[in-house]
Write a structure and sequence with these properties.
Length: 351
C-alpha cells in the first residue's frame, strides 16, 4: 500500500488499458459477497503503456460505470504497475520499527533508480534473516506523477482514492482470499492484461519475486490484424469469439497458438530467472488471471511448454453473489479479468 486513510470497506477499481473494472464487496459471516460488479471497455488510445493519455475519456468512463452500477460508497482503491513502480526485497541491519521508519528514506536511495523526492515510498518488514543480524524488508516505490495521474481520474469522477496498491499484490490478495494459502507450495501468479503481464511468485505463503512484462492480449489482437488485414476493433471482436467478415474463432486458432508460443517463451525466461536468482527449482503450479487468460488453448499450451500445472483463477468461485441480480454465466466469463479489482475490494484501508 502506497498510502491510505482509515475507513470501512472500499470499492476496488482496476483501471486497465482496455477496460475499467469495478467490484464492491461486503463481508458477511466471514464470507465476501458482491454488492456491485461491472466493467466498461476503454478506447485503446486512452491509456498507453500505463500512462493516462486521455484523462477526460477515462474520467467519463469511470463516472458512467459508477452511475450505471449505482455505487454510493465514496472510498475507492486502485492499483498501478509498470516501469514507474519498483518492488525490491532488501536486507538491512536489525533495527526497531521506529528506527526503520526514520531511516527507510535514505536506505531506499541506493535501491531506487529515481530521485527519492519524486517517488511515493512504502515498506513492509518481512522478518529477520537466519544470521540474526539482518532483517528482510519489502520496499515499494512509485513515481509520484504516475500515482497522481491515476488518483486524479478517480477524484474527477467524484470519488475518493483512499488506497493505492500495486497490481502484483492486488492479484496476491485475490488469490489468498479465493484460493487460500498452502505454505508448502510455490505458486506463480500471472495476470495477463491487454498490454502487461503482472508476475508474482509466492513461496512459504510469502511473495518473493515480482516482475511486470510488456506482453499481453494486444499481441493477439495485433497478430489477427496483420494476418487477416482487419481493423483493431474487428480483431478484438474476433478474439472475443464473435464472427467478423466471414471469419470465426476457428479461423484464428492457429494465430492464437502462435502468439501463445511467444507468451510461453516470455514466461519461461521469467521462471528461469526466478530459479537462478532465488536458487529455487520447484514451482508447483501457475495460476492465471486477466482477460487474456481465457484465450483458446492457452492453459494447455503453457502446461505443455512449461511442464507445470496451469489453472485459471475465478474469484467468484469463492465469493458469493446474488444469481437473480448477476447471471452466473456472465460472472464466470468475466471472473478472471476481475482479479485485480477483487484484490482491491477485499481490502480495508488501514489493515
Amino acid at each position: 500500500m502506497i498510502f491510505g486513510k482509515r475507513s470501512k470497506h472500499i470499492v476496488g477499481l482496476d483501471i486497465g488499458s482496455s477496460a475499467i473494472k469495478l467490484v464492491e464487496l461486503k463481508k458477511k459471516g466471514g464470507e465476501f459477497h458482491v454488492e456491485k460488479l461491472g466493467f466498461s471497455t476503454l478506447s485503446s488510445e486512452a491509456i498507453v503503456d500505463g500512462a493516462v493519455m486521455d484523462a477526460t475519456l477515462v474520467v467519463d468512463t469511470i463516472a458512467n460505470l459508477i452511475s450505471r452500477l449505482g455505487v454510493k460508497n465514496p472510498n475507492f482503491g486502485i492499483s498501478i504497475s509498470g516501469h514507474a513502480v519498483i518492488i525490491k526485497r532488501i536486507t538491512l541491519p536489525v533495527m526497531s520499527e521506529d528506527e526503520l521508519r526514520e531511516s527507510i528514506q535514505w536506505e531506499a536511495e541506493s535501491y531506487i533508480p529515481f530521485n527519492i523526492n519524486e517517488v511515493n515510498l512504502s515498506y513492509q518488514y518481512l522478518g529477520d534473516e537466519q544470521d540474526g543480524q539482518n532483517m528482510a524488508v519489502l520496499l515499494v516505490a512509485s513515481k509520484k506523477d504516475k500515482v497522481t495521474d491515476y488518483t486524479s481520474v478517480v477524484t474527477q469522477a467524484n470519488k475518493t482514492p483512499v488506497l493505492v496498491d500495486v497490481d502484483a499484490f492486488s492479484l496476491q490478495n485475490c488469490f489468498e482470499v479465493c484460493m487460500g494459502l498452502n505454505p508448502s507450495e510455490v505458486v506463480a501468479l500471472v495476470n495477463i492484461g491487454a498490454s502487461v503481464m503482472n508476475f508474482n511468485i509466492m513461496t512459504e505463503g510469502q511473495s518473493v519475486f515480482w516482475r511486470d512484462i510488456s506482453f499481453g492480449g494486444n499481441q493477439y489482437t495485433e497478430a489477427i490484424m496483420k494476418e487477416l488485414s482487419l481493423s483493431f476493433e474487428q480483431a478484438e471482436a474476433l478474439k472475443k469469439g464473435e464472427a467478423v467478415g466471414g471469419y470465426t474463432v476457428e479461423n484464428v486458432i492457429p494465430i492464437f497458438n502462435s502468439v501463445t508460443e511467444e507468451l510461453s517463451g516470455e514466461l519461461r525466461k521469467t521462471l528461469d530467472f526466478f530459479r537462478s536468482s532465488m536458487q529455487q527449482d520447484k514451482i508447483d503450479r501457475i495460476v492465471l488471471a486477466g482477460g487474456c487468460s481465457k484465450v483458446v488453448n492457452l492453459t494447455g499450451i503453457l502446461q505443455q511448454k512449461l511442464g507445470t500445472p496451469v489453472e485459471i483463477l475465478n474469484p467468484f468461485s469463492a465469493i458469493k453473489y446474488d444469481e437473480s441480480q448477476y447471471d452466473p454465466a456472465w460472472v464466470n466469463d468475466i471472473g478472471p479479468s476481475m482479479a485485480i479489482a477483487v484484490g482491491l475490494g477485499v481490502r480495508e484501508v488501514g489493515d
